[in-house]
Design brief:
Layout: H1 20-44, H2 50-71, H3 73-81
């Protein structure tokens, strides 16, 4: 029995042009993940001032949606691994 081939790391290389529906699904899923992450961060901070809250709840979904659309599966792999 031979060892499996090592997987080539392609994290954070843009995906080739995906279909339009794939872009929309990635954007929605990324945005929802960003909202969830923002809520967790906000709760861990014990609430925040109004400006910080607005920036957090707008910035996190926008950044995660961008990452999901641009990098696709590599983004989610990195998210699940915890950035390692």
């Amino acid at each position: 029995m031979t060892a499996p081939e090592p997987r080539e790391e392609k994290l954070f290389l843009p995906d080739p042009e995906p279909e339009p529906i794939v872009v929309k699904v990635r954007a929605v899923c990324g945005g929802l993940a960003g909202l969830f992450a923002a809520a967790v961060i906000w709760l861990k901070l014990g609430g925040a001032g109004p400006i910080a809250t607005v920036l957090l709840f707008i910035g996190a979904p926008v950044l995660t949606a961008y990452g999901a659309v641009r990098y696709g599966d590599a983004f989610w792999e990195r998210w699940i691994r915890g950035g390692s």
